[in-house]
Amino acid sequence: MAFENPSRDHIREILKSSNTIAVVGLSDKPDRVSYMVSEAMQKKGYRIIPVNPTVQGTILGETCYPSLADIPESVDIVNVFRRSEQTVPVAEEAAAIKAKVLWLQLGISNEEAARIASEAGLEVIMDRCIKVEDSILLPGGK
User: Structure pTM?
Assistant: First the structure.
């Protein structure tokens, strides 16, 4: 059966009930889309946890971790800025840390990653921008 994203109403509830977003592939360069989206979400009140094995130190004032497994706290949403073919291991890590949602950004989709996450009990959203969805569904904030 072909993958289908949750309804807009359900995505609104996911965003309302989420606080912590681990961003896999978050760049430390302010001109990158991952940085701009994450910064906007941070300004809306979400806690952003950067995940990027090539960056040491902080991004957006938060400690950057090399992998999801290295994050010492629970994560609501794993937001992914990686190529579609690189998302299966991310889905496996998201399942292993018991995240609630695997969110693949606009232009990113992978049926196998979706299956892995779904079978582990995660909600899955693919090929959607979290910032755009948040702006549309929660324009005044959470």
Answer: 0.97
